[in-house]
């Protein structure tokens, strides 16, 4: 869910500005999943731009406080959301932990890094939502550690129906600063893309798995 349209537009504009998001409907990227995609997103790039990362942390923090008050802990999802999650926790003056995709194979064999106590309330911070699978694995790990997960916030989501299904099934509320629909709107408005490309982008959202069959082979390999 998007709480504020202006924030959604501004966030999308900033991500495009620094190439954290690239739109190339005529020359799509190839994801590790095998899908051809007109969009590439790497929000870790935002950490290299102080004014932008501050904008993101303040708006994510504000969203958390508006929706959940102050939880006991902020949890980032490794590895992409460790940086922004820690910034949000610092801004809110809250403890921080992060969740690995798998249990560490050596040492203390942790899956959750940081000090998390039983029954603490936690809000999870993500950088990007695709299908939501890896994000929800983090939620599952926190629940297994007896944490009370109040919800999740993220910078950006592709808005796939599959993600909505996965979050509903896990009974987790997801709120993001921006999403694919707002991105396409601001990209067209700023002449980043043409009206013809807008149609290609809309068709991708309708069937991302099969969309690439109608587009020429891509030479770009992006491991997402």
List the helices and strands and how they pair.
Layout: H1 5-17, E1 21-23, E2 29-31, E3 36-37, E4 39-41, H2 50-68, E5 73-77, H3 82-92, E6 96-99, E7 112-113, E8 121-129, H4 133-144, E9 148-157, H5 161-169, E10 174-179, H6 180-189, H7 195-206, H8 208-211, E11 220-222
Parallel strand pairs: 2-11, 5-6, 5-8, 8-9, 9-10
Antiparallel strand pairs: 1-4, 2-3, 6-7
Helix pairs in contact: 1-6, 2-3
Name its key features.
224 residues, disordered C terminus, single chain, alpha/beta, 6-stranded mixed beta sheet, 3-stranded mixed beta sheet, Rossmann fold, 11 strands
Tally of discrete structural domains: 1
CATH topology descriptor: Rossmann fold
Query: If you average the pLDDT, what whole number results?
Result: 92
Percent helix, as a range, is 40-55%
What is the CATH domain class? Alpha Beta
Specify the overall morphology: globular
Subunit organisation of the chains: single chain
Looking at the overall shape, the CATH architecture is 3-Layer(aba) Sandwich
> Over all CA atoms, what is the radius of gyration?
18 Å
Largest sheet: 6 strands, mixed
Strand-residue proportion: 15-25%
Low-pLDDT segments: 217-224
Would you write up a description of this structure?
By secondary structure, the chain is α/β, with parallel strands linked by helices. The chain has one domain (5-222): Rossmann fold, CATH 3.40.50. 40% of the residues lie in helices and 22% in strands. β8, α4 (133-144) and β9 form a beta-alpha-beta unit. α1 packs across α6 and α2 crosses α3 (82-92). It starts with a helix and ends with a strand.
